[in-house]
Write a structure and sequence with these properties.
This protein has helices spanning about 20-30, 35-55, 60-70, 95-105, 125-140, 145-165, 180-190, 195-210, 225-245, 260-265, 300-310, 330-335, 355, 360-370, 380-385, 385-395, 400-410, 450-460, 470-480, and strands spanning about 1-5, 115, 120, 270-275, 320-330, 395-400, 420-425, 430-435. By secondary structure, the protein is an alpha+beta fold. Helix 2 packs across helix 4 (about 95-105). It starts with a strand and ends in a 32-residue tail after the last helix. It is globular. It has 2 domains: about 1-285, Orthogonal Bundle (2-methylcitrate dehydratase PrpD); about 295-435, 60s Ribosomal Protein L30, Chain: A, CATH 3.30.1330.120. The longest helix is centred in the first third of the chain and has 21 residues, at about 35-55.
C-alpha cells in the first residue's frame, strides 16, 4: 500500500493532476490488476447480502415510494434499462432510477455490510448503482459478471480507503460523501473508462453528494435510507456527464474553496489516505463485515453480549432488580448512538424506527430482555412501549473509554473493536461485569459469517416475499456471478410473489 497525502492548496500553487486525490482514485479504478479468489468470493457474498435485506424491506414505505418513483421513468434510449427489486424483471427503468430504488431497498433496514475507521460506511451501497449500469449496458458493451465483480471491488476499495483516511462525521458531514466518488469509480472500472473520464466523474460525484449529518441526528427521518441511494444515483449521472466530456471542479478535495478547506478540517488540515500501489490487488472488501442483526453496526456486538447475559443472568431483565447499566465504549458509539449524543429521542418510546436503530440504550435493553433481536418486532411500537422495557431503558447509559476508542480506530484488524465493557449494578449491591470486542458474525467473532450464512440470511429474509422457486433461482444466479454472460445480468434481481405488493399503498408525486 502507499499513502497519499492530502491538504488544501492555494489556486496559485497549481496542484498537478498526479498530486490530486481524485486522480489517484481514478488511477486505482483503471488498474487492470486481477482480483484474488477470496475477494471474488466475498463480492458474491455481498451481492446475496444486499438482496436479502432488500427482500425484507420491499413493502416498507420508503422502499415503496422509491420504487414507485423509479418505475414512473421509462428506459433511456442508450441501453436496455435496469431492473428494480420486487418488480417484474421484464419491467425496466433508467439505470439511475434503478440505482435509486434498489439503493433505498438495500439501506432501509440498516442490515447490510459496514466498515468503520476514521469514518463509517456501508460499502454495499456501491452495488446497486454498479449493477444498474451493468444491466443497462450489458448487451451493447458485452459486459459480463466478471466486469461487475471488478467494478464492485473498486467501489469497496475506494470507499474503505477513504473511510480509513478521512473523517467526515467529525466535521458533521454525512458519510455518503465517500460513496459518491467510490460508486463513480466502480462504474468506471465496470465500463473500462479512461482515467481522465473517471477523474471528472469522481469530482462531480463528490461535489453533488456532500451534505450535513443532520440526517443521522436527533429525530432521524426516512431520508437516512434515501441518502446512500441518492449518492448512487448522482454517481450514475456524474459518469454519464463525464463520458460526454463534461468536467468537474478541480481540485475537488484540495482546492482553496474545496471540500477540505470548507467542509472538513479547514485550510490547515491534512489527511493520509492509504491506497493500493499500481499492480496491487484490491482487497479492501475483506476488511468489511456484514450484520447478523438489523441495527447500527456498533450495536451488533452489544446485541450479542446482551443475548449472552440474558441466558446467564435471567433475573436482570427485571428493572426492579437493576440499579444501573453502564456501557463503557468508544467515542463514536457513545456520541453517535449512545447517551453522549444528548438526544432525548434515544429514550423516547414514540421515536421513529430510524431513531431507535441509533439508540444503543434501547437496543441493549430489548436484546437483554428478549435474548434475541428481530428486524421487525424488536422495533415495533408495542415493544418500545412495554412498561418494564421503558423502566430498564432509562437506566442504561454510555461512557467513553479511551482504550475502546483506540481499538475502534485501529487499522489492525486483529485488535479493531466495536464493543466494550458493561457494568450492571444490582439493587442488592451486587455487580455484573462482562465485555465483548467484536460481534459474533465478525471475521474474528465467535461465529464468523461464511457463504452458508449469507445464503441462510437471504432465504430467511426473503421467504415471506418470494416464491421458493424465485429464491433458488436468484441464489443460483448470484453464486455464479463471476461467470455470468451479458444476457444473464438482468437476472440479478427478484420478483415479489403474487399479492405481496398488492396491499401496499403506492404514493403519488410529480412523476
Amino acid at each position: 500500500m502507499k499513502t497519499h497525502h492530502v491538504r488544501t492548496h492555494r489556486s496559485d500553487e497549481h496542484l498537478a493532476r498526479e498530486g490530486q486525490l481524485a486522480w489517484q482514485l481514478a488511477a486505482l479504478a483503471t488498474d487492470p490488476v486481477e482480483l484474488d479468489d477470496d475477494v471474488v468470493e466475498m463480492v458474491v457474498n455481498r451481492v446475496i447480502d444486499n438482496a436479502a435485506v432488500a427482500a425484507a424491506s420491499i413493502a416498507r414505505k420508503p422502499v415503496v415510494s422509491a420504487r414507485s418513483q423509479a418505475l414512473a421513468h421509462p428506459v433511456s434510449i442508450g441501453g436496455d434499462g435496469a431492473t428494480v427489486f420486487g418488480a417484474d424483471a421484464a419491467r425496466r427503468t433508467s439505470p439511475e432510477w434503478a440505482a435509486w430504488a434498489n439503493g433505498v431497498a438495500v439501506r432501509e433496514l440498516d442490515f447490510h455490510d459496514t466498515f468503520l475507521a476514521a469514518e463509517y460506511s456501508h460499502p454495499g451501497d456501491n452495488i446497486p448503482p454498479i449493477v444498474a449500469v451493468a444491466q443497462h449496458l450489458a448487451a451493447s458493451r458485452g459486459l459480463t459478471g466478471r466486469d461487475v465483480v471488478r467494478g464492485i471491488a473498486t467501489g469497496y476499495e475506494i470507499q474503505i480507503d477513504l473511510a480509513k483516511g478521512i473523517s467526515l462525521h467529525q466535521h458533521k458531514i454525512d458519510h455518503v460523501a465517500h460513496l459518491g466518488p467510490s460508486a463513480a469509480a466502480g462504474i468506471g472500472t465496470l465500463l473500462g473508462l479512461d482515467q481522465e473520464t473517471i477523474f471528472q466523474a469522481i469530482g462531480q460525484a463528490l461535489h453533488t453528494t456532500t451534505a450535513t449529518r443532520q440526517s443521522r441526528k436527533g429525530e432521524i427521518s426516512t431520508w437516512k435510507a434515501h441518502a446512500p441511494a441518492f449518492a448512487g444515483k448522482m454517481a450514475v449521472e456524474a459518469v454519464d456527464r463525464a463520458m460526454r466530456g463534461e468536467t468537474s471542479p478541480v481540485p475537488i478535495y484540495e482546492g482553496e474553496d474545496g471540500v477540505i478547506a470548507w467542509l472538513l478540517g479547514g485550510p490547515e488540515a491534512s489527511y493520509e489516505v492509504p491506497l493500493p500501489d499500481a499492480g496491487e490487488a484490491k482487497r479492501a472488501i475483506l476488511d468489511s463485515y456484514t450484520k447478523e442483526h438489523s441495527a447500527e453496526y456498533q450495536a451488533q456486538a452489544w446485541i450479542d453480549l446482551a443475548r449472552k447475559l440474558h441466558d446467564a443472568y435471567p433475573l436482570i431483565i427485571n428493572p426492579d432488580l437493576v440499579e444501573s447499566i453502564t456501557l463503557h465504549t468508544s467515542h463514536h458509539t457513545h456520541y453517535v448512538i449512545g447517551s453522549g449524543a444528548n438526544d432525548p429521542q434515544k429514550y423516547d418510546p414514540d421515536a421513529s424506527r430510524e431513531t431507535l436503530d441509533h439508540s444503543i440504550p434501547y437496543i441493549f435493553t430489548v436484546a437483554l430482555q428478549d435474548g434475541a433481536w428481530n428486524h421487525e418486532t424488536s422495533y415495533s411500537p408495542e415493544r418500545a412501549h412495554q412498561p418494564d422495557t421503558i423502566a430498564l431503558w432509562k437506566k442504561v447509559t454510555t461512557v467513553e473509554d479511551p482504550e475502546w476508542t483506540r481499538r475502534y480506530h485501529s487499522l489492525d484488524i486483529a485488535e479493531k473493536a466495536f464493543g466494550g465493557r458493561v457494568v450492571i449494578k444490582l439493587a442488592d449491591g451486587g455487580e455484573i461485569v462482562d465485555e465483548i470486542a467484536v460481534a459474533d458474525a465478525h471475521p474474528l467473532g465467535a461465529r464468523p459469517f461464511g457463504r452458508d450464512d449469507y445464503v441462510k440470511k437471504f432465504r430467511t429474509l426473503a421467504e415471506w416475499a418470494l416464491e421458493p422457486a424465485e429464491i433458488e433461482r436468484f441464489l443460483d444466479l448470484a453464486q455464479r456471478l463471476p461467470e455470468l454472460s451479458p444476457d444473464e445480468l438482468g437476472g440479478l434481481t427478484f420478483t415479489a410473489a403474487p399479492g405481496v405488493l398488492a396491499a401496499t399503498e403506492v404514493p403519488t408525486g410529480l412523476f
